[in-house]
From TrEMBL:
Keyword Signal attached: yes
Protein name: Cellulase
Family recorded in the similarity comment: Belongs to the glycosyl hydrolase 74 family.
Coiled coil: none
Domain of life: Bacteria
One Pfam family linked to the record: CBM_2
One GO biological process term: cellulose catabolic process
Gene3D superfamilies the UniProt entry points to: 2.60.40.290, YVTN repeat-like/Quinoprotein amine dehydrogenase
Lineage of origin: Bacteria, Bacillati, Actinomycetota, Actinomycetes, Kitasatosporales
Region of interest: Disordered: 760-782
Record key words, sorted: Carbohydrate metabolism, Cellulose degradation, Glycosidase, Hydrolase, Polysaccharide degradation, Signal
A GO term for molecular function: hydrolase activity, hydrolyzing O-glycosyl compounds
Position of the signal peptide: 1-26
Residue stretches making up the CBM2 domain: 777-887
Length: 887
């Protein structure tokens, strides 16, 4: 994940959370008692697969195939070997404890594999209002008990890739140690994590701060005790292990040891200085403690590093670094020992951003090394591996870099690296965007290439800033932190690519034209380049707009109902409006800079804004805004509002804070007046979906507190009554960024999370939970024309677009297009249609939303494919049994 990760998380939380957590109900008249109905929902993720930093991987040492992953803001996961997927374990974390979705460390008990522990807490400064905790489970994370700590933990703080800070004594599994940040030292539990006390005998709580001058407390926090490692050769069953090593964030005193089960501690003599020890991994069989050092705490930074081996019996330190110190421009971190062949050690150059990360491997305890790639003649390189990202094709970032860079990259921020203790051929490692792995690692040693693939399915770690579900086209468009966003044509499949041209680091807002959903706009952040982009094909392809002067970030953006104009409130500049696709912007009058903007979904000249308790309305396409006389609205900027499709001037507004009005408001006169719903105590998002069977008004969805219960709620009667649609097992921490229903599927709701990706739910109610089925098998009559265009090509694959045009005089009600490849190409993923392929023959059928094609109109779809040689265009296309002209 990119350097903007922390900014993404903070910006996502800025709406009311940074001031002390989710705002409480304002003082005043009590909320009326509300009888809540309940519905049974099925919850899934719209698949992205990964999308965030995985700083830790933990394999159990006594049970095969038992492994866990931790994320910085998205909870913890357990590996499911039968399906090769990850199962989320912390979805039960609720709104008030949102910080506990950040996991700073994990420990799996090898003496009792049913036990697992998680040290949780997202920030050690005031961004996270709550203290940290240690969660303990006796059923592998299916359920948890919590031990609150008297200090905060930092799952998303600098140094979070070091570790593991939490460890279980292998001989007395009631004993655990936890390394704490912020000068709180080392802590110990002797009752299996139920209670904790400080180990005061450890003399050094650490002193390293990434940036002591940072007044926010984020980069200036003491990174503390960074890892704990037991020497299992110094104990026996039922008796606490005698020798314990800990890493300390102190460049002059980085490693301490106790030889009396933690009663006393000493700095190990002769240790290297000038570095922080990111990892300490012990090979008890050979008596070696391996240490990976960097000059900083990571995970983004690090300019120099070393690898050392400490002989536990003799006290001899040996520099086993694979390259000279002068040749490093990175630190070392990811560190692992092959437990089946303990002389085999691996480590990563975690902070080598360019041209790629590096992985090192030694089979003689660090005496000599080989590396995952090397230069032949610069800038050309030779890899010991091949990469197959067909399951997550967006990992190429749509890039075409010049050597020595390659796409996809081997990784970055590679602080987690583990060889399966039961299988020397399996290795997994975490990156800033995914988990990669291999199941034929030992090919490295024979000189043949091993294969790296994403091993991340089920782990969804995106921070979601905005969501949209158009009435036609793709069912879901998303604005995401760090990886921009996606167009989902199938929620069960990973999209082929994130939004590109331009590729925002984070998309902050998106919108579509309600009566012309092919017109889509998005705004976002980019280090250099435009901050706004447009699409005329429902988000399949994009082109950049032009920024007005002063823009520094995406802000919010709104499309007119017919797509004829746009209003944009970017960061760093005031609100602007444009006719057409943003080639020339004009400042809007009457509305303050930083206002949130939205459009009326019927009247193309009506736009709305909100800032600091005031609602603003424009009826001239965003040229001028007038403040509404409405009063009693939230005084802060923690507000989200939307206009109802199909009804001019119907606006719903959610938001507030603990020190003022907080709830859900409704206007039917374009914001001139608002009525607060008395039965909603708090509300942070609002969205609309298909009306319930027999209902005339669209379904409302909100992330709110209603009837004293925090959750995701649905109303089918304009908010008169509410149904909670999630349950205590499905809460996902903070869900205050965005929510929307689906205009085509009754009951379906898409929920934005801050680290658990895009969650969507389907109802068990009658009439809900099913996608529209495919249309009838088409047999259109009339003439047709096909345009086939290759849009991207690489050595073993390509991307193409196909446009099918009705050149006849009668409409088509469904279509099937057939062709045959001539060079052995194979479709690997296709969007905006469905397909089958038998040998070279391909058949593509319409989806439910693009089957009707009028005379002179077109249907378009795209796909990625594999190839082994040439990539000639198919010579002929047929619509059913009718030949089409090829353009």
């Amino acid at each position: 994940m990119r350097r903007t990760r922390i900014l993404t998380a903070v910006l996502a939380l800025a709406a009311g959370l940074l001031a002390g957590g989710p705002p409480a109900l304002a003082a005043g008249a009590p909320e009326p008692a509300t009888a809540l109905a309940a519905d049974t929902y099925t919850w899934k993720n719209a698949r992205v697969d990964g999308g965030g930093f995985v700083p830790g991987l933990v394999f159990n040492r006594s049970e095969k195939n038992l492994a866990y992953a931790r994320t910085d803001i998205g909870g913890a996961y357990r590996w499911q070997e039968s399906t090769k997927t990850w199962t989320p374990l912390l979805d039960s974390v609720g709104w008030d404890d949102w910080g506990h979705t950040g996991v700073v460390s994990l420990a799996s008990d090898s003496a009792d594999p049913d036990r697992v522990y998680a040290a949780v807490g997202t920030y050690t400064n005031d961004w996270d209002p709550g203290n940290g905790a240690v969660l303990r489970s006796t059923d592998r994370g299916a359920s948890w008990k919590k031990a609150d700590l008297p200090f905060k933990l930092g799952g998303n703080m600098p140094g979070r890739g070091m570790g593991e800070r939490l460890a279980v004594d292998p001989h007395d599994n009631d004993v655990l140690y936890l390394g704490a940040p912020s000068g709180h030292g080392l802590w110990r539990s002797t009752d299996a994590g139920a209670t904790w006390s400080q180990v005061k005998a450890l003399p050094n709580p650490g002193n390293y701060r990434q940036d002591p001058s940072d007044t926010s407390g984020y980069a200036s926090d003491n990174q503390g005790i960074t890892w704990v490692t037991f020497d299992e050769s110094t104990g026996s069953g039922g008796t606490a292990t005698k020798t314990v090593y800990v890493g300390v964030a102190d460049k002059e005193n980085a490693v301490y040891r106790s030889t009396d089960a933690g009663a006393t501690w000493q700095r190990i003599a002769g240790q290297p200085t000038g570095y922080l020890a990111h990892k300490g991994v012990l090979d008890a069989e050979n008596g070696y403690l391996y240490l990976a050092y960097s000059d900083t705490g990571g995970p983004y930074d690090g300019g120099k590093g070393r690898l050392y081996r400490y002989a536990t019996a003799t006290g001899v330190w040996t520099d086993i670094s694979p390259v000279a110190e002068a040749d490093t421009y990175y630190g070392f971190s990811g560190l692992t020992v092959d437990r089946q062949n303990p002389g085999t050690v691996m480590a990563t150059a975690y902070s080598s951003w360019w041209p790629d990360t590096q992985i090192f491997r030694s089979r003689d305890s660090g005496g000599s090394w080989t590396q995952a790639w090397s230069y032949t003649s610069y800038p050309n390189r030779e890899n010991r591996y091949t990469m197959d990202v067909s399951s997550s094709p967006w990992l190429t970032w749509g890039a075409n870099p010049s050597p020595p860079e390659q796409t996809p990259k081997l990784g970055w921020m590679t602080e987690a690296l583990e060889i399966d203790p039961f299988d020397p051929d399996r290795m997994m490692y975490g990156t800033g965007a995914t988990i990669y792995g291999t199941e034929n690692l030992t090919r490295w040693d024979s000189g043949s290439k091993f294969t790296i693939t994403p091993m991340v399915r089920g782990l969804e770690e995106t921070a979601v800033n905005d969501l949209a579900s158009p009435p036609s086209g793709a069912p879901l468009l998303s604005a995401l932190g760090d990886i921009g966003g996606f167009r989902h044509t199938d929620l069960t499949k990973v999209p082929s690519m994130m939004f590109t041209q331009p590729n925002f680091t984070s998309t902050t807002s998106l919108d579509f034209a309600e009566s012309n959903p092919d017109t889509v706009v998005r705004a976002g952040n980019l280090d250099s380049g435009p901050h706004i982009a447009f699409s005329t094909d429902n988000g399949a392809n994009w082109f950049a707009g032009t920024d007005p002067s002063g823009v520094s970030g995406g802000g919010t953006v709104a499309a007119a109902a017919d797509g004829s104009r746009f209003v944009w409130s970017p960061q760093g500049a005031g609100v602007h409006h444009a006719t057409g696709f943003g080639t020339s912007w004009s400042a809007s009058a009457g509305i303050p800079s930083g206002a949130v903007v939205e459009s009326d979904r019927v009247d193309p000249k009506t736009f709305y804004g909100f800032k600091s308790g005031k609602f603003y309305v424009s009826t001239d396409g965003g040229a001028t805004f007038t403040a509404s006389p409405a009063t009693g609205l939230p005084s802060g900027d923690s507000v989200r509002f939307k206009a109802l499709p199909g009804a001019r001037g119907d606006v719903w507004l959610a938001g507030g804070s603990s020190d003022g009005p907080y709830g859900l408001w409704h206007s039917t006169d374009a914001g001139a007046t608002f009525t607060k719903l008395a039965n909603v105590g708090e509300a942070d998002t609002v969205g609309f979906g298909k009306a319930a069977p027999g209902a005339s008004y669209q379904t409302l969805f909100t992330s709110a507190e209603i009837g004293g219960v925090r959750g995701i709620f649905r109303s089918t009667d304009k908010g008169a009554t509410w149904t909670r649609v999630n349950d205590d097992a499905h809460q996902w921490g903070w869900t205050g960024a965005a929510i929307t229903g689906d205009p085509r599927v009754y009951g379906r709701v898409y929920v934005a999370t801050n680290g658990r990706g895009i969650v969507y739910g389907d109802t068990s109610d009658t009439g809900g939970g099913t996608d529209p089925g495919p249309g009838p098998d088409p047999g259109p009559s009339g003439d047709c024309e096909v345009t086939y265009r290759i849009t991207n090509e690489w050595p073993d694959g390509f991307q193409a677009e196909v446009r099918l045009t009705n050149t006849g005089s009668a409409p088509w009600n469904g279509w099937t297009l057939n062709w045959s490849f001539t060079d052995g190409q194979k479709v690997t993923q296709l969007w905006n249609a469905s397909h089958t392929q038998t040998g070279p023959a391909v058949t593509v059928r319409n989806t439910d939303w693009n089957g009707t094609v009028g005379p002179g109109s077109s249907a378009a779809f795209g796909f990625t494919g594999s190839r082994t040689g040439a990539n000639a265009q198919p010579a002929a296309f047929a619509l059913g049994d009718r030949a089409c002209a090829v353009r």
